[in-house]
From TrEMBL, chains A, B:
Lineage per the UniProt record: Bacteria, Pseudomonadati, Pseudomonadota, Gammaproteobacteria, Oceanospirillales
Family label: Belongs to the peptidase M20 family.
Species, as recorded: Salinicola rhizosphaerae
NCBIfam families to which the protein is assigned, alphabetical: hydantase, PRK09290.1-3, PRK09290.1-5
Domain Peptidase M20 dimerisation: 206-307
InterPro entries to which the protein is assigned, alphabetical: Amidase_Cbmase, Bact_exopeptidase_dim_dom, Peptidase_M20, Peptidase_M20_dimer
Protein's name in the database: Zn-dependent hydrolase
Length: 406, 406
């Protein structure tokens, strides 16, 4: 089993880089702090005898040779970039759990048949540079390298420039292009495991997702001098959209989700009737057919609201990923890892997107979830217990050993 | 009758000071541009032989002597400060119509019994420094001078400092403290006159108003990994509040109004369930009893929404003015002014707050409305036709003459 204290100490040490006053972490992708985080990780990896390389989008790989070193590697890891008001665990847990697995093997002089590669994917969070999961997106061909490099932050700096500035433009050929398997440990970022008192989530796949940007246009006017019957209140249309989204999600339980997360009212003044509202809609479901039905109901709903209210409603799709089903062999390895060590567990579908979801398109993959307090993530208050962190790393150790062979 | 061309030219000339690219005006109270506007107005007034003074909050008075110069004056005017993206007419129309009335009397060598005073109230809009109607608020004792002077802009500059910087701290004793009557011409800022094809609104009073700031608190969480039944979505509570406000206003027609104008969602991110929503609520009604009933229904509604949703809902009152009924003599003078000149007109209740609404607490007062295109105001696109501008000034002339006596 892994050394849980050592893993916890590393988690806390990495969180020092970009530590926020409220106990969280702000270490966004491709910043100077990201460089410092990568350097610390590199030092730790090299101290374990791993050879560290990075590819053209900056994904960092650290290799532990195998008995058959020409075999495709088993890859384990996650990401170390954070949200602007992020926590200490999202991404870092999976990356440092991978390092802890490797150090445990070193300490025990265990040699695996296949090589092991630790990976830290570039820009999973997508905050400074969109889209999220940029590194795994380029790796799996969802996004071209040129497209990724051309993305700009709010100051007009491109991701390519930022990557060069921190010195992390590498060479693809130095890195593995084919994985025999990929395992990613992660905090759940949701409340299900905690709610049911389980230690390990055996992640069998991920919800498909469809995102929309919607704009409702009415006419801004004075709230005092405009009678009710002469108004074109964009906020009334927008609230009906919020309710339609909720209603559709409720009608597709237990696996459907529908959320309006971003919501901007213009001119947003106390005594002006809202003339325009922009909002985002996020639908998810584990089944492609159900997701399509939710989207169809939504589009009918928008038409009905526009027709009844006389408001102009425009919408466009901003993200569209089908449900993902992870590889059975990898899932079984995770489940056996949990069972063998007596951890309570349940199968779970990831509601959030992860690098593993992209990787699963090109290689056998699965994930290991541990509970996070109250399901809080993307928040400085994010927390997982030392016991659960250890448990997740132990399951990763067993599953990786099973896949890599001894 | 007035010289409509001259009045129009002055309106356009004043709008040059702070002109915006989109054809509007940004000349906020107590700025350098406000100083320039006041200076131009002062030059015009002095060219008409008026004596210009200002009081301790910077309200500007320009006096035309009367036959009985010790009698209390008839005061006519409005304000010349604008919204940040304001138009050319809001306030400036009433102020320059007053000047045009005085110049017309000068040109015709008409001497009134009572003195006439033109007034330009300080900071009616309340954008850089809250509250709105600051100058008339201090004049009528709604606000102490010390309180008004202590208000700060976003940079921490106080209104007192800004007033001193533009050189407009005057002496109360130099200005009239008692008015025999007050008349204010203004664009309607609403669609009623245009909708009914009327040229003049005989303003009989103003709606009472009650404003609330409401905060709905749930729990921010990941939109993908949080199942519907474990959510505490603040936006769902907020949308129910929007509907409750609408529903209450609809139930109090034709004079009730209810508006949610400001609406801020936090953290306002595409894949985060809203944890908090702050919103403003604006209720108005012409009858105090009805307004109280609307507010009572609203408070019951908030309780019901909190109880049903499990969300925490806090609210506080931020403004509270009773309905205002203008003086019958002043109203009649306005109505006769319109009738005598053959202008189509209707009685109207002002939905918006105005300096006249405050003045009416301490002196006989009324207002004259002219249509504004599509009811658009507080907007660079604000527009009134030259014909309506002339008509409004002509009604002001007749009504002021009637009140001041010849
Ligand atoms: N893990 C995670 O937060 N991914 C971001 C994309 C999503 O909303 O699922
Ligand atoms: N005239 C005007 O826009 N006043 C502002 C206060 C209000 O909302 O009525």
């Amino acid at each position: 089993t892994v050394d849980g204290d050592r893993l916890w100490r590393r988690l806390m040490a990495l969180a020092e880089i970009g530590a926020t006053p409220k106990g969280g972490c702000d270490r966004q992708a491709l910043t100077e702090l990201d460089r410092q985080g990568r350097e610390l990780l590199t030092r730790w990896c090299e101290a374990q005898g791993l050879s560290v390389r990075f590819d053209a989008i900056g994904n960092l790989f650290a290799r532990r040779t195998g008995a058959d070193d020409s075999a495709d590697p088993i890859v384990i890891g996650s990401h170390i970039d954070t949200q602007p008001t992020g926590g200490k665990f999202d991404g870092c847990f999976g990356t440092l759990a991978a390092l802890e697995v490797i150090q445990t093997l070193n300490d025990s002089n265990i040699r695996t048949a296949r090589p092991l590669e630790l990976v830290a994917w570039t820009n999973e969070e997508g905050c400074r540079f969109s889209p999220c999961m940029m590194g795994s997106g380029v790796f799996t061909g969802k996004l071209t390298l040129a497209d990724a490099h051309s993305r700009t932050d709010t100051k007009g700096v491109t991701a390519g420039e930022a990557l060069e500035a921190i010195g992390y433009v590498g060479v693809d050929a130095d890195c593995p292009r084919r994985f025999a398997g990929y395992l990613e440990a992660h905090i759940e970022q949701g409340p299900i495991l905690e709610d049911e008192g389980k230690t390990i989530g055996v992640v069998t796949g991920a919800l498909g997702l469809k995102w929309f940007d919607v704009t409702v246009t009415g006419m801004a006017a004075h709230s005092g001098s405009t009678p009710m019957h002469l108004r074109h209140n964009a906020l009334l249309g927008a609230t009906r959209i919020v309710e339609t989204v909720e209603c559709i999600a409720q009608a597709h339980q237990p696996d459907g989700r529908g959320t309006v997360g971003a919501f901007q009212v213009s001119p947003n003044s106390r005594n002006v009737i809202p003339g325009e509202v922009s909002l985002s809609v996020d639908f998810r479901h584990s089944e492609g057919r159900e997701l399509a039905a939710m989207v169809a109901a939504f589009e009918r709903g928008l038409e009905a609201i526009a027709a009844e209210s006389g408001l102009e409603i425009g919408s466009r799709i901003t993200a569209d990923y089908p449900p993902q089903h992870f590889d059975t062999t990898c899932i079984d390895a995770v489940r056996r890892g949990a069972t063998a060590q007596g951890y309570s567990h349940r199968d779970i579908v990831s509601g959030a997107g992860h690098d593993a979801v992209f990787v699963s398109d090109v290689a056998p993959a699965a994930m290991i979830f541990i509970p996070c307090e109250k399901g809080i993530s993307h928040n400085e208050a994010e927390y997982a217990t030392p016991e659960d962190v250890s448990a997740g790393a132990n399951v990763l150790l067993r599953a990786a050993l099973e896949l890599a062979g001894v």
